[in-house]
Design the sequence.
């Protein structure tokens, strides 16, 4: 069985190494500061006992007052999982640090989030729209996207 | 050209009939027209029949029926296809080189038909016994390289260009082993005339020089660009290769030439290696010829239906490293044997043939075994799969 | 003599025989050698994730059919498991067995397609493809017995499956399971030892284990790289923990390994189904669920091992009758991330088979 690590435990371990990075934790989720997400990701990947080498998925959710970035991480060597979350406030010109340097598997997924949510990832090597064409008006998975007249 | 000793369905025979009531020059021209009509139509009709045969057979190979709606057993399917292609719009890309684009199907089609003119069906040929038949064959079949290049170039299409570039490289390379393989035949027959080649086969050359036969068949199937050598078309990579931009009647002519190629190849193989019209007595020679051609066709078709294709560099490597060496070896061995067994008039006795066959089979098997181990040297033993240390799906909580 | 060459950019797709749908690759060739690749996706983008936000939890099942349309059952399973997780629905045991049987049948069908089209890409004039299709038809017949549909099945529901198996299903399944090993043997005799297949696939398109994990690769492609990771074992869902089966892995991570892993997985699937046939209990096939499922607020992520890899659904509920957000972790989409690195330096013919061996379905890539 893949074990879901307790968010509180992981949060404590992150906090000892990267103080101030964790916002809160509950269940199997850890909320971290948006700015420190790359450092946290590197920490989770490299630390003995965590070893989250596999990035299952990146996505975002539009909670209207903020966007929540959701990272599902799996450790293949220890068969455990954790969910990393970060809030991204605002509606226009959003940006978040890219984790492409930590897991190269983030490449297309971050492009997808940029395409559908309009969250720019700083440090992404090739941040272009992926499913829709360049110049498509708006970002369709936002709650305020109304579609376009044909 | 030697027109003597030919029957009624030959240049001389037909000319004789027309000369009775026409002036000489007109009879000559009319005869040429009639012969061209006969040769082209015989070829086109047999190609039509062959496409049906091939599609039905491949249907069987693929556990399905194949075309079976038009006419008995679907025999009219080729005609339906041709009608469909004729009534299709004939498009030419606006950026294409119009003239070259239009003539390249003809360039491909003409030499294929020309080869048929000198094949000794039965005791006669349409155009008499060309005493340099083999040279004519090698020369004429090389023309298709130009057609492929012209078609790919004129289409102004990158896929077509890639296909034709591959095609030129491949066709030129395989000319060499093919010509060398035929050289072995010429050495034993002591003549360049196809009729003499057939006459010399008291034992079919397939048995006398198996190595030559294998090289010839491999090179010939590359020449007609069918699997495993169909890099010119490579439909899963290039769409349709050099004739991507063609449609309508021009495309039909390409298809015709393409489907004619296996027939021509089979006929050549039968003439050069299977003893042409020779056979047992109650069955006439022509029938023997047809039976052998159909058998070779079936073999080619079998290969086409089952095998995947090689990559272009592997194809070129196979020609230059494999077939070329084998063909040279074949010529070398045959030359020595011919020196030993040939009598004063350049004939070899049946007994001599059998002795040569015995030696050649041993050499063939040995040569191929060595070649497989040298060329197929990349046949590495694969390591036994072992789980990577990067994952442990049985890991439990500590 | 030096030959001056000039790179040529070729547009492979969106209409191309070997792109398995509407995929486009902008490839720059130097002669036959690939110097640059840029995948262009989105030609089949239908906004499934957005559509899901306006449908009830049961209606979304039909949307999932149309993602990986080669393996609808696996999509259904992944989705209903996510709903069950977020809504806390217990699934009756019989339903779990039926789901596992149908998911494994779907895996065989999907791998048959992958193998057939790989051979087609190799240039084998559709003969191996036809053999694969012949067996796939039998699986589709079984699906037709189960739910009346053949491709877009919508067989599963949150809480179970939508109807019990008809009586003629079990003997037909027994017969299929009895015959399938010989069909796979036949396929292997046709393909596995073929010298041309070996020359074309061995050592081509290597992806080692370190890169595979780093690129979030999953499914047969990950296992071909030697990484022993299968959610059916690592995180057993349904009743997989009661079954005895092996996880085949490859040695090098080349195209040949990806092919052979799929063949072996088909054999393992047959083993699984055979065990399930004997063990399936009788009983209800669907838990009692309200007509409109209203899960409590929160989120849930559930993943299954689909034929293409880890297929996960991430659902966010606001307590309403439709999900607030439905994200699909599509294995086909993520598995093509390293495409550029895998293709550089290979020839055009290799491009086609490397791409074919990844086995993507465009419905899932673009969603």
Sequence:
């Amino acid at each position: 069985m893949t074990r879901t690590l307790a968010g509180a435990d992981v949060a404590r371990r992150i906090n000892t190494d990267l103080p101030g990075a964790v916002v809160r934790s509950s269940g199997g989720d850890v909320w971290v500061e948006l700015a420190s997400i790359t450092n946290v990701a590197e920490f989770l990947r490299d630390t003995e006992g965590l070893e989250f080498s596999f990035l299952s998925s990146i996505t975002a959710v539009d909670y209207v007052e903020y966007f929540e970035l959701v990272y599902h991480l799996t450790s293949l060597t220890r068969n455990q999982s954790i969910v990393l979350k970060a809030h991204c406030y605002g509606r226009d010109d959003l940006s978040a640090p890219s984790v492409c340097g930590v897991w190269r598997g983030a490449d297309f997924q971050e492009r997808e989030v940029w395409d559908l949510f309009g969250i720019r990832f700083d440090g992404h090597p090739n941040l272009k729209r992926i499913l829709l064409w360049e110049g498509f008006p708006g970002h369709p998975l936002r709650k305020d996207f109304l579609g376009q007249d044909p | 050209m030697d027109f003597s000793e030919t029957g009624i369905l030959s240049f001389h025979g037909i000319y004789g009939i027309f000369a009775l009531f026409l002036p000489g020059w007109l009879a000559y021209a009319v005869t040429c027209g009639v012969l061209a009509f006969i040769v082209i139509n015989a070829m086109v009709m047999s190609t039509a029949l062959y496409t049906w045969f091939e599609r039905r057979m491949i249907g069987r190979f693929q556990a399905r029926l194949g075309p079976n709606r038009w006419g008995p057993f679907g025999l009219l399917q080729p005609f339906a296809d041709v009608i469909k292609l004729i009534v299709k719009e004939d498009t030419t890309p606006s950026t294409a080189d119009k003239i070259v684009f239009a003539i390249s199907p003809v360039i491909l089609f003409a030499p294929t038909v020309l080869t048929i003119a000198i094949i000794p069906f039965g005791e006669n040929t349409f155009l008499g016994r060309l005493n340099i038949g083999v040279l004519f064959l090698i020369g004429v079949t090389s023309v298709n390289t130009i057609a492929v290049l012209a078609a790919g170039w004129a289409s102004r299409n990158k896929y077509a260009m890639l296909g034709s570039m591959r095609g030129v490289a491949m066709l030129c390379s395989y000319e060499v082993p093919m010509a060398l393989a035929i050289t072995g035949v010429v050495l034993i027959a002591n003549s360049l005339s196809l009729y003499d080649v057939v006459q010399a086969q008291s034992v079919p050359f397939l048995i006398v020089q198996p190595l030559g036969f294998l090289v010839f068949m491999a090179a010939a199937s590359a020449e007609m660009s069918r699997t495993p050598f169909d890099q010119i078309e490579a439909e899963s990579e290039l769409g349709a290769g050099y004739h991507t931009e063609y449609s309508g009647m021009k495309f039909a002519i390409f298809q015709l030439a393409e489907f004619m190629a296996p027939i021509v190849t089979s006929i050549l193989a039968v003439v050069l290696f299977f003893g042409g019209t020779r056979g047992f007595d109650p069955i006439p020679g022509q029938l023997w010829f047809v039976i052998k051609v159909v058998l070779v066709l079936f073999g080619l078709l079998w290969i086409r239906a089952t095998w995947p294709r090689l990559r272009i560099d592997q194809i070129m490597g196979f020609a230059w490293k494999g077939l070329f060496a084998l063909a040279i070896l074949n010529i070398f061995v045959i030359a020595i044997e011919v020196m030993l067994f040939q009598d004063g008039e350049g004939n070899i006795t049946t007994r001599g043939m059998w002795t040569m066959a015995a030696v050649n089979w041993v050499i063939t098997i040995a040569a191929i075994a060595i070649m497989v181990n040298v060329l197929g040297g990349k046949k590495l033993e694969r390591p036994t799969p072992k789980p990577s240390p990067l994952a442990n799906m049985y890991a439990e909580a500590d | 003599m030096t030959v001056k060459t000039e790179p040529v950019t070729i547009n492979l797709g969106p209409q191309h025989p070997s792109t398995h749908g509407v995929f486009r690759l902008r490839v720059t060739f130097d002669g036959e050698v690939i110097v640059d690749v840029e995948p262009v996706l989105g030609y089949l983008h239908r906004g499934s994730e957005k559509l899901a936000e306006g449908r009830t939890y049961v209606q979304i099942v039909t949307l999932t059919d149309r993602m990986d349309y080669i393996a609808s059952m696996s999509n259904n399973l992944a989705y209903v498991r996510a709903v069950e997780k977020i809504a806390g629905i217990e699934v009756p045991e019989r339903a779990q067995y039926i789901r596992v049987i149908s998911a494994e049948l779907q895996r065989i069908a999907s791998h048959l397609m992958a193998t057939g089209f790989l051979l087609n890409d190799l240039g084998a004039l559709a003969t191996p493809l036809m053999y694969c299709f012949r067996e796939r038809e039998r699986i589709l017949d079984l699906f037709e017995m189960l739910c009346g549909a053949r491709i877009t099945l919508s067989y599963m529901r949150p809480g179970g499956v939508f109807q019990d198996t008809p009586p003629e299903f079990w003997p037909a399944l027994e017969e299929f399971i009895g015959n399938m090993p010989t069909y796979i043997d036949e396929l292997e005799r046709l393909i596995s030892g073929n010298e041309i297949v070996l020359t074309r696939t061995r050592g081509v398109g290597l992806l080692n284990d370190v890169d595979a994990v780093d690129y979030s690769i999953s499914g047969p492609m990950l296992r071909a790289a030697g990484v022993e990771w299968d959610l059916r074992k690592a995180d057993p869902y349904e009743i997989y923990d009661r079954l005895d089966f092996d996880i085949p892995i490859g040695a090098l991570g080349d195209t040949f390994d990806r092919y052979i892993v799929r063949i072996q997985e088909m054999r393992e699937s047959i083993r699984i189904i055979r065990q399930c046939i004997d063990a399936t209990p009788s009983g209800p096939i669907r838990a009692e669920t309200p007509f409109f499922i209203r899960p409590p607020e929160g989120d849930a992520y559930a993943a299954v091992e689909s034929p293409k890899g880890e297929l996960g659904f991430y659902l966010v509920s606001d307590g309403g009758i439709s999900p607030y957000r439905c994200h699909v972790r599509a294995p086909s989409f993520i598995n093509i991330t390293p495409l550029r690195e895998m293709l550089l330096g290979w020839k055009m013919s290799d491009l086609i088979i490397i791409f074919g061996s990844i086995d993507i379905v465009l419905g899932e890539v673009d969603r």
Notes: The CA atoms of residues 121 and 286 of chain B lie 6 Å apart. Residues 71-373 of chain B form one domain. Residues 1-6 of chain B have pLDDT under 50 and may be disordered.
